[in-house]
Amino acid sequence: MSAEGAEPGPGSGSGPGPGPLCPEHGQALSWFCGSERRPVCAACAGLGGRCRGHRIRRAEERAEELRSMASAARELVIQRLSLVRSLCESEEQRLLEQVHGEEERAHQSILTQRVHWAEALQKLDTIRTGLVGMLTHLDDLQLIQKEQEIFERTEEAEGILDPQESEMLNFNEKCTRSPLLTQLWATAVLGSLSGTEDIRIDERTVSPFLQLSDDRKTLTFSTKKSKACADGPERFDHWPNALAATSFQNGLHAWMVNVQNSCAYKVGVASGHLPRKGSGSDCRLGHNAFSWVFSRYDQEFRFSHNGQHEPLGLLRGPAQLGVVLDLQVQELLFYEPASGTVLCAHHVSFPGPLFPVFAVADQTISIVR
Predict the structure, then answer these.
(1) I want to staple 13 with a disulfide (CB 3.0 to 4.6 A). Which of 30, 59, 62, 271 is the partner?
(2) pTM above 0.90?
(3) CA angle at residue 335 from 215 to 256, to 5 degrees?
């Protein structure tokens, strides 16, 4: 027997109080078998016991070791949370300083523009007074002789009315954007909201090249067009697309899609005005003004909208794809939960209600509950 403590003997190891007993020998479980990873009695650990030759140590020693491990794990959690908290506080301070700086800049621009327009009004008033004086006191011949001067004053007045750095008056909302904050926010949103909304696919929209599971959460691509699908105005009849039955018009929403089995898919949102019939780009996700999608084709990843395709430099395909739609700030975000990476964020004014949209041309994709 390999012992890490004192050699157990008959009747040894009786504890100071009652506790669980060995079902085989009826003795206190005062020893720990490191080979079987369980407490045993002295008889089990002895020369004729079932744990003979195993790594044996006293149960209290193992308990103390576990207490030390738990304490170290607790300290690690506290340390890491403290670091995250400190980092968040620093980022908060940085962003607030940027917002304050942008606010001060915009305010100063307004004051500058106010001075400019006060001066401009004074110049215009002077020009107006001069022109009125000419029209009032000059005869026709004198007025003709003053034609060039009248033209120059009129041109000067038009120049005064030209916009002067009007874009400087706008508040630059980019000052509030932070990759760190976006990443933490997306993690929190997916962790708290994902699965709370029962998103299922509207079977009336499913392309005849797709098979829909009974729970209406999994789409499987087929090279053969199904003849069992009854055609209707909602159904996509060419591209392998499908819309969710749920639409969103306001608020914050999140869902996840399992995409690890497919090398050709699209996931995103689409307006209910997305055309369904034909092989044109107006029905193809990401190629029209009605859809915003993250797409994969083999090892090519990109974000697409209205025929504009933004390449995404991903080294590997995500196993799961998180989608966060924040209609309060008009933002669509794609996120990889496994690595905590924001793959793409898109800011735009979305029209009307939006539906989760899916397309698959290889294997299957599934909405994760």
Answers:
(1) 30
(2) no
(3) 10
